[in-house]
Design brief:
Helix 2 runs antiparallel to helix 7, helix 4 crosses helix 6 and helix 4 crosses helix 9. A hairpin with a 2-residue loop joins strand 1 and strand 2. By secondary structure, the chain is an alpha+beta fold. The radius of gyration is 27 Å and the shape is elongated. Strands 1-2-3-4 form a four-stranded antiparallel beta sheet. It contains 13 helices and four strands. The chain has two domains: 193 residues, no CATH class; 48 residues.
Length: 304
């Protein structure tokens, strides 16, 4: 006896539409050919937003289109994505996806909040997406990711009356993969380019501590040092200072992975992919070993 498929909300919401076989195309093929489509949490949230807006059948066909290369091109601009998708008709369908850009005042509020958090600024300047960045956008009363149908405006020239259709879904999935590689594209859809965000962060971080204030304590520190002549302290010169016990140290992995490499950029005389992978292994190995030594020493001291 055949298993009966359970009905869902979308069975009544969307009109029935017979699937068609698309004309094969050699377009943009998704890197993910099976299983989960994206790897980063921010791209995953983008995909999840689509899954709340579409029925399972069209989602599945959209993933298939994205993996087969039916999407011919994608153009991302501030607030809008334009694409062409090869369907069952000779002429490719035109797809548009619009995400409402933030106003200038909203972006000012977001950038001020980001600059206040040193770790947020450091991660974004190193092209990483901070884990708690949604809180900043929530504070500006604008969601970073689509949360309802009103947040997204989608169109497709295909005859399917459902919106979003499988062609829109295919483009949406491929956008998720692009966000995986470059989180700044998500900001670009909200109306700010990568260059504009980095410039705004650097400007705010530069003035967060005035230069005069930053230098004002230096003479006091120098004047406070009352060191005896070298000839009088040769016996204890290589020992730890008397105030060493008061020094507070925080031993932890760096908050930004490969920060120096990201800041300086990859050298042009090596293969970028293999060099980055090699350096990532080196950095991670050094970090793991340093933590092992540090916490191993602390364990030994606690047992002495």
């Amino acid at each position: 006896m055949a298993k009966r498929r359970s009905r869902s909300y979308y069975d009544d919401y969307w009109p029935h539409y017979e699937p068609t076989r698309p004309i094969e195309a050699d377009g943009i093929k998704a890197k993910s050919q099976r299983g989960k489509f994206v790897t980063s949490w921010w791209a995953d949230k983008w995909i999840n937003a689509l899954q709340r807006l579409m029925d399972a059948g069209r989602l599945s066909r959209g993933r298939s289109y994205a993996r087969k290369g039916q999407v011919l091109e994608i153009d991302i601009k501030a607030g809008k994505v334009a694409a062409r998708v090869q369907g069952s008709r000779p002429s490719p369908y035109k797809v548009s996806i619009e995400l409402k850009p933030l106003s200038d005042s909203q972006w000012t509020s977001v950038m001020d909040a980001l600059a206040e958090q040193a770790i947020f600024a450091a991660q974004l300047l190193n092209e990483e997406m901070p884990a708690d960045i949604e809180q900043v956008f929530d504070k500006a009363k604008v969601p970073l990711f689509p949360q309802s149908r009103g947040d997204l405006s989608t169109k497709c020239s295909c005859p399917d009356p459902a919106n979003p259709c499988k062609h829109i879904a295919a483009v949406y999935y491929l956008l998720g993969e692009r966000f995986d590689a470059d989180p700044f594209l998500l900001f670009e859809l909200r109306g700010r380019s990568k260059a504009a965000i980095i410039a705004a962060l650097r400007e705010r971080r530069a003035v967060s501590v005035p230069a005069q204030e930053a230098l004002s304590y230096v003479p006091d520190v120098i004047a406070a040092v009352d060191a005896p002549p070298l000839a009088e302290c040769l016996d204890t010169y290589w020992g730890a200072p008397t105030a060493w016990d008061a020094v507070s140290l925080r031993i932890a992995a760096p908050p930004v992975d490969l920060a120096l490499l990201k800041r300086l950029g990859l050298p042009d005389f090596v293969d970028a992919t293999s060099f980055r992978a090699q350096m990532e292994r080196v950095y991670n190995g050094v970090t793991d070993r340093a933590l092992e030594i540090a916490f191993g020493d602390m364990d030994r001291e606690s047992t002495d």
